[in-house]
Design a protein that fits this description.
Radius of gyration: 23 Å
Order of helices and strands: HHHHHHHEEHHHHHHHHH
Low-confidence stretches: 1-5
CATH superfamily of the largest domain: MFS general substrate transporter like domains
CATH topology of the largest domain: Growth Hormone, Chain: A
CATH class of the largest domain: Mainly Alpha
Structural class: mainly alpha
Shape: globular
Helix content: over 70%
Number of strands: 2
Largest sheet: 2 strands, antiparallel
């Protein structure tokens, strides 16, 4: 006789929140490891004899291409294997590759190491939310997932502050000699200092238990089914994705080069930028996330079916103003003040954009549609944003002192263009809503 299966009980709140904490700290490490390069542009350029275009490639394409593309296969691994082990191995790998950035002696070596950072961090992007979802019942998931999302929104600010403190200390100490590796410059020490602690956390992360999978669909959706669905919504989806690529390109370009602007134009030290700009980013990333959702909710209360897309379009249009003006100020403190609305509006569209995908996509396709959305918009934004600003500085303005002009020009072109395209997507969303209502009425009349 078969023994009865004991009733399932959810993990204890303590164990569940331990998993959330472990994932959130891993997320902070990921932002620190990917962002610290932005604070070290000047010494890296000097030691490796690089151009701003090459720096843009290191900030963007080297990290972004593999980070974006690997989310899809790692997502498959997360659906079919041990997710905790996947993230733990990924954390160890990207921490090692961050440390190897500090041992790079050429552009090629640093480029390869940055590829490794992106490769490893894709594991967390693919599996983090899935782990949390199996630690909490549906009615209790919003808060822990919001914590993980909040870390993602504020992680860059925390990374800037931490990077500024570590970098300032390294620059003050000067070069040091390490057995086997010889003399290491301060920027190399910074990479080692932020990368190696991740290895310790990767070992501690293994204390998180792999949760049982509780909501496995009886039939998995296929990519072919997704693409057939997208073809029926191609105008809304196409315009949404295309317009968001313009916003994302400017966002990653500004994030990569604003620290450099404060150093080159206003003479701020690495620590000054990390603490001042990092604090502004930390605060106003939260403000932007809340404001975007609030505006979308307001439009929704007015009965607008395109509320989320309309909120994105308004945010992108308003973003043009601080995007152009922030780096044209005579004082670093005035620029920092304008960075507050800039950061607010950079984070502003994130929630409404994801909400748009959820509202137009059937439940069984939402995971793959979200993956497709991130693959398209991040591949373009991360890969091209920093590269575009660096190339403008090298080939249009022909002076590294003009990096502020490059950021302003990018904002002047990208932000209103993205806003216009998203406005078209919002109009297409209304047409889609009208067609769906007509189809529903027709079905009712036939019945």
């Amino acid at each position: 006789m078969t023994a009865p299966v004991p009733p399932f009980t959810w993990p204890s709140p303590a164990r569940a929140w331990f998993a959330v904490t472990a994932l959130s700290i891993a997320n902070l490490f990921s932002f620190l490891d990917r962002t610290v390069l932005n604070l070290l542009v000047a010494p890296i350029k000097t030691d490796l004899l690089l151009s701003d275009t090459q720096i843009g490639l290191l900030q963007g394409a080297a990290f972004g291409v593999f980070y974006t593309l690997m989310i899809l296969p790692f997502g498959w691994v997360a659906d079919n294997g041990n997710r905790v082990r996947l993230v733990g191995l990924g954390l160890a790998f990207w921490s090692i590759m961050t440390a190897l950035c500090g041992l790079a002696g050429s552009f090629t070596e640093l480029f390869v190491a940055r590829i490794g950072v992106g490769f490893g961090e894709a594991t967390l992007a693919a599996a983090g939310a899935s782990i949390i979802s199996d630690y909490f019942p549906a009615k209790s998931r919003t808060l822990p997932l919001s914590v993980l999302t909040l870390v993602a929104s504020t992680g860059a600010g925390v990374a800037l502050i931490a990077g500024g403190l570590v970098g300032g200390a390294a620059l003050a100490s000067g070069a040091i000699t390490v057995p086997v590796f010889g003399a290491l410059q301060p920027w190399q020490i910074v990479f080692l200092a932020v990368g190696l602690p991740g290895l310790v956390w990767a070992m501690l992360f293994l204390a998180v238990r792999e949760p049982a999978r509780l909501e496995v669909a009886a039939e998995s959706a296929t990519w072919a089914e997704l693409f057939r669905f997208v073809s029926t919504r191609r105008k809304v989806v196409g315009l949404h994705f295309f317009g968001y690529c313009f916003y994302n390109t400017f966002g990653y370009g500004a994030a990569g080069w604003l620290p450099v602007y404060f150093m080159r134009t206003h003479g701020w030290s690495l620590t000054d930028v990390g603490l001042r700009y990092g604090a502004i980013y930390l605060i106003f990333a939260i403000v932007g996330g809340l404001a975007g959702g609030a505006l979308a909710k307001f439009f929704l209360s007015q009965g607008r079916a395109n509320a989320n897309l309309l909120a994105i379009a308004v945010g992108n249009a308003l973003l043009t103003i601080p995007a152009v003006l922030t780096t044209q100020m005579p004082s670093g403190w005035i620029s920092l003040a304008l960075a507050a609305p800039l950061i607010t509006l950079l984070v502003f569209p994130s929630g409404p954009s994801l909400a748009t995908i959820q509202e137009i996509t059937p439940n069984r396709l939402r995971g793959r549609m979200t993956a497709l959305y991130y693959a398209v918009t991040n591949l373009v934004g991360i890969s091209l944003g920093a590269l575009l600003v660096g190339a403008l500085t090298d080939y249009v303005f022909r002076s590294e002192a003009a990096v502020g002009n490059s950021i302003s020009l990018a904002g002047l072109v990208l932000c209103p263009t993205g806003a216009f395209i998203i406005f078209l997507a919002a109009r297409a969303r209304l047409v889609l809503e009208s067609l769906e209502l007509e189809s529903l009425e027709l079905e009712k009349s036939k019945a």
